[in-house]
Design brief:
mainly alpha; disordered N terminus
């Protein structure tokens, strides 16, 4: 009698997220947690100024105070991140930001926050952001292989953006219910938690060679940035665009919400709709892999100005929420494709410095634009200033498509070849 053959166990099923290594998982989780606090903090800060009797202009000044040190210190943050362990830089920056936000929360809760204190502590938060951001982007770009980049960056953006929904809604609700100080305290707590998480990130690359001066490294990063026309053209576009969007979201939006809508709660709901657009589009981007990554990304930029249009025509809350949703769609379409472009075109050892120049250029006009938001509203009227922001956003989105490298830069296959010829770096004079 023949023995029955033994049933062989099925082959192990590959893990669905096998590409998501330790650093990717920790960084994504930490980004979600910090996003919960950060999404509500701008709402709380704006209404803290307004609650103290501050004007639209003073709201703009406080927002600009955060952006100014960000612009000034970004390139230093990029150089530090390319020569030191990136996770150490991130932990230090998170601890510094948490401390400054805790002091700000205590002042607001105590009812003793003066304008100069709000300006100083907002500037401290901007300094922390400048040191953190280049290291964080370098870490996430190196944490996944190129063949899984679209999926990984979409998942990362979904996690990052999902926290906008809860954070903005919670921030608006808490600001309306118990005041802005508790929202700022929550943000400080989130910074401390993520600093502890990021302490366990693994060093992903050796620091820069000993004896290399920081000035030389900054020059190398600038050459890498300036040699790619598609890169600096888009960054130039965003230098003006971010100023307009920042004025709308940080200054005009809260003022319109107070004057024409239901105040902080309604503005928080509108920002939550923006977060929904971010997340829903992230699900799409997991599977959608367009060939012309920057061309498709820039179509999303056309949606950035839609909220300004809705605010300019005094649209009701449902229409404003729909406009914010579309803006979130555009941000994710651009953001995922932009991360893919950076990962496939920029050498790994240059990631943080190039990302620093990217953020520096994109934010360079934001402090001035936001500081002038109040005077512009006084001169043009609130609706006139909003119309100007919307028109500028649309014109910039159209103008950047005149650059051939933006239209032609293509996604590379797993073998490293491009589906269509990829843009080559432009020569440096």
């Amino acid at each position: 009698m023949q023995s029955r053959p033994q049933r062989q166990p099925p082959p192990p099923h590959p893990r669905r997220f096998a590409w998501a290594g330790r650093n990717f998982r920790i960084q994504t989780a930490a980004t979600v947690i910090s996003g919960l606090g950060n999404a509500g903090a701008p709402i709380a800060t704006a209404f803290a100024v307004i609650g103290n009797g501050g004007s639209t202009t003073e709201v703009g000044y406080v927002t600009a105070a955060r952006l100014l040190p960000t612009v000034l210190l970004l390139v230093i943050g990029g150089a530090l991140a390319d020569r030191l362990p990136r996770h150490h830089v991130m932990v230090a920056a998170n601890l510094f930001s948490g401390l400054s936000q805790a002091v700000l929360a205590a002042l607001v809760l105590g009812g003793h926050a003066r304008l100069w204190q709000l300006l100083l502590l907002s500037a401290a938060g901007g300094a922390g952001y400048a040191l953190y951001t280049p290291a964080a982007e370098g870490m996430i770009l190196l944490s996944v292989p190129q063949e899984h980049a679209a999926r990984a960056f979409s998942v990362f953006r979904m996690g990052q953006n999902a926290s906008q929904i809860g954070g903005a809604a919670l921030g608006g609700a808490l600001t309306a219910a118990v005041g802005p100080g508790w929202v700022l305290a929550l943000d400080a707590l989130c910074f401390l938690i993520v600093a502890a998480l990021r302490f366990f990130l693994e060093a992903e690359a050796a620091p820069a060679a000993a004896g290399t001066s920081m000035l030389r490294e900054l020059r190398e990063g600038w050459r890498e940035f300036a040699s790619r026309r598609w890169l600096w053209v888009v960054v130039l576009q965003f230098s003006v665009l971010v100023a307009c969007v920042g004025a709308v979201e940080s200054v005009y939006g809260p003022v319109v919400a107070k004057e024409r809508l239901g105040g902080a709660r309604d503005w928080g709901l509108a920002m939550a709709a923006y977060g929904v657009g971010l997340v829903v589009t992230g699900l799409l981007m997991v599977r959608w892999q367009p060939r012309r990554i920057l061309l498709v990304g820039n179509w999303g930029v056309f949606l950035f100005g839609v909220p300004a249009l809705a605010l300019a025509v005094a649209a009701p809350l449902p229409v404003l929420a729909a406009a914010m949703f579309l803006s979130g769609v555009g941000v994710t379409v651009f953001g995922v494709n932009w991360m893919i472009a950076l990962q496939q075109e920029i050498p790994a050892e240059m990631f943080s410095r190039v990302c620093a120049y990217d953020h520096l250029g994109s934010l360079s006009l934001a402090p001035l634009g936001i500081a002038l938001a109040g005077p512009a509203a006084d001169t043009l009227g609130l609706s006139g200033a909003l119309w100007a922001c919307a028109l500028i956003s649309l014109l910039l989105s159209a103008a950047v498509l005149l650059e051939p490298q933006v239209r032609r830069l293509s996604r590379r296959t797993a073998t490293g070849t491009a589906t269509t010829p990829t843009a080559e770096p432009a020569p440096i004079p």
